Amino acid sequence: MTTTATIAMKAAWTNARRAAAKFNDSPIRFFAICLKQAWAWAKKEAAKRFNRNELVGLAAAARETAKAIGINVTLVCPHTDQSVRRLAWFPKSMLTGNAAPRWLVKARADELRNESSYQGRTSLIVEDMLADGSPVY
Questions:
Q1: 6: part of which helix (H) or strand (E)?
Q2: What is the mean pLDDT of residues 92-101?
Q3: Where are the beta strands (DSSP E) in the chain?
Q4: Tens of pLDDT, residues 52-95
Q5: pLDDT of residue 34
Q6: Rg of the chain on CA atoms, in Å
Q7: What is the Cα–Cα distance from 75 to 120, expressed in whole angstroms?
Q8: Helical packing angle, 27-49 and 4-23, nearest 10°
């Protein structure tokens, strides 16, 4: 999968090489300027692709209190296929129906990863959190 950052880096090097060839100089001299331009493009592109305030549907609640709902999620290691179940809590004040802002879902997934004692915890995939069944990376 090609990310926006990869595309930006390739574009920066391509533009630096073109500018260097035009002025008969080293691409290194032009790389910083080209990288700034490519990074500005990448930020705009990422904002289009990822709307932090977009609401995403949550899976069915396993536990519920007066102020929050708890959803059973599974943390899966992509290398060993080992998994562990945890409870992810979402405050009702942040929910709209059964949907939460994407930033909150990402924050809860990161929180669950950091609580894990697994050595490669940053690579853990959080499953069963969203209603559509898609994993949270």
A1: helix 4-23
A2: 91
A3: 55-57, 63-64, 68-76, 83-91, 99-101, 125-127
A4: 778 889 999 999 999 999 999 988 877 777 888 999 999 999 99
A5: 83
A6: 21
A7: 12
A8: 150
Burial of 124 (0-12, 13-18, 19+ CB in 10 A): buried
Minimal CA–CA distance to 61: which of 53, 49, 71?
A: 71
The Cα–Cα gap between 10 and 20 comes to 15
Distance separating alpha carbons of residues 102 and 47, to the nearest angstrom: 13
For residue 122, the model assigns a pLDDT of 65
- Taking Cα atoms as reference points, which of 51, 59, 48, 45 lies closest to residue 103? 51
Instruction: Name the DSSP letter for residue 67.
Output: S
Count the neighbouring beta carbons within 10 Å of the beta carbon of residue 52: 10
Other beta carbons less than 10 A from residue 56's beta carbon: 17
Q: Name the band, by pLDDT with cuts 50, 70 and 90, for residue 1.
A: very low
pLDDT given at position 49: 61
Task: Using a cut of 0.70, tell me whether the model's pTM lies above it.
Answer: no
Contact between 83 and 116 (Cβ < 8 Å): no
